[in-house]
Amino acid sequence: MMKLNGIAAAGVALAALVTAALLPVAPAAAGAGQPKDVMHPCPVLVELYTSQGCNTCPPADVLLEQLDAREDVIGIAFHVDYWDYLGWKDSFALDSNAPRQRAYAKAMEQSYVYTPQAVVDGLGHFNGSDKRAIDRAIDDAKMMATVALKTTWDGRDRIHVDLPESGSQTVGPGLARGAAIWLAGVDGAREVPIARGENAGKTLRYSNIVRSMERLGEWDGMAARVTIDAGALRAAGREKAVVMVQAPDMGRIIGAAEIRLDSAPGS
């Protein structure tokens, strides 16, 4: 397992691909648009921290694609750049990805960051290749309360994401108030020939790659609506949008939704 000593202060670069607004909305009728699991109505979010320059990462990259195929999981890959010095620059790494991972390390009192690392619903971290441990963590995450995010299309270029009033569901106001609302623009599967570094000579497949990340605002626990500019994301080449609601201070994920950008009416 590869690891890097030291914890740095977190900072997330803002992308300019999305138009978003937090608007109050009337509370939805009980059960409207919600999955059957009342306690955990949204999929579990698995974040994989990986690198094209990491020779232990390919099995984790394969596992992430398998996890994302499940209905009860959203799997996304954050490529980091701190292994670029080994001879290969990761073509998918964002400047904001390693700071996000280090912020998790600080919140979870880790003394280092590493790849491949899977963070499950913001609750714990695991070797990204350890399917058994990740499966157990997904099952454990389902015991934690989350909120249902309802997504609707407004034409082809706008997506509304409705957040319920926290008091109407099982997540209390202590977690909801000050929760960060994140939007990730995500690519599907890509194959990359690696010319140098630890994976030199291999052509590796990556999936669900985070290519943009923006903090849209904070949730105050009241019913609200976020509007996403899907047209701008598609124009930038993105295939999916993933919305995450995260408890303050890099806490657990209390809501998540994945939207395929080719699922718009008329697509």
Automatic annotation (TrEMBL):
Pfam families: DUF1223 (PF06764)
Top-level taxon: Bacteria
Keywords, sorted A to Z: Signal
Keyword set includes DNA repair: no
InterPro entries: DUF1223, Thioredoxin-like_sf
Signal peptide: 1-30
Keyword presence, Flavoprotein: no
The protein's name in its UniProt record: DUF1223 domain-containing protein
Organism this protein belongs to: Marinibaculum pumilum
